[in-house]
Design a protein that fits this description.
The protein is built from twelve helices and twelve strands. The chain is an alpha/beta fold and about 375 residues long. The chain has two domains: about 260 residues, Carbamate kinase; about 90 residues, PUA domain (Archaeosine Trna-guanine Transglycosylase, Chain: A, domain 4, Roll), CATH 2.30.130.10. The strands form two sheets. A seven-stranded mixed beta sheet has the order 3-4-2-1-5-6-7, with helices on both faces. It has a five-stranded mixed beta sheet with strand order 9-8-10-11-12, sandwiched between helices. A hairpin with a 5-residue loop joins strand 10 and strand 11.
Amino acid sequence: MVERSSEVPVRPSRDVLGKTRRAIIKIGSKSLTGDAWDRLAEDVAAFRQGRSSGKSLGRSVVIVSSGAIAHGIQKLGLKSRPKDIAWLQAAAAAGQSILMQRYEQAFEKVKIPVAQVLLTHADLADRARTNNARNALAALLEAGCVPIINENDAVAVEEIKFGDNDQLAAMVTPLVEADLLLLLSDVEGLLDAEGKRVPVVNRIATEARHLAGGSTSGVGTGGMSSKIEAARRATLAGAHVVIAHAREPGILGRVTSGQDVGTFFPAPEQRLSARKHWIAYTLRPRGVLLVDRGAAEAICTKNRSILPVGVLGVRGAFQPGDAVSVVDPDGREIARGLSRLSQTDAARVACQKRDDESPEGEAIVIHRDDLVVLPAD
């Protein structure tokens, strides 16, 4: 077994949240009821301007919002959330305009323009389209808009779905270089076995995962387990994460002033670059490379490329440039990367020693620049 570092990294206190300049707020279907839109708009306006000074502090907000399907279900007169993909797409199409109308009306009261941005997983899995989305979001933020991001459920199918908007929010985090991801829920944060709020989580694997559960609302698709996974991914992108109750008055201001509300997931000092985060947590692996212990050690501790001699076997169907999982002999996924070879060529050269007369590019299965070692936690 290849041991990766198990030391707990030094994490900042909640005081660091006072330095937030760009926040992503993710809010789910169950929380968007009553006056939720007005309260959210007032919270965003107060954060952008500063409660005491009344002057612009250069802060900006992105909202990742569920709710289109829930509104569409009501509009179409459906009795429950449909399971058929075509009816889900129909509900999304019918409800998206209502959702945006609610945001338009609420933010107009605080004189902040909003803009709708619909994304699919295919948009963010393609590097060129990812850059286009990044540029569009940057322009909207520069113009003073609050982008309202949602998955484009009207065209999404299983192959292009994010899974839920918690994961979408985590993928957007490095895209807009956010330093805070606020995941709003219908509970006050992560709860322990006795139902008490957990104030801080430093190590997700040992402190949080066993406390998570799925969605029980029947309205949304996420749940606490999804939020914890989103928190893990967003902190690796360098953003601090807080899970808090959507009904808490002035929650964004309370979080960014360092108050003890919700569950705080501080980001580690070291962060993944946007590109490596994209490789590890946006792209979906098309196959698996099984490597021997020597290769696993070199990958995890020495930042080495993967050479054919260290590859024991190949699974899946992938082409050059596709993302693949890297698994050690114990079956643990230790890394993800972009393969330089197809699965056929990778299988053909597996276990072969390098021919010194061959060009260097032919002797590499995954280059270290395209390889991301996954944290042990």
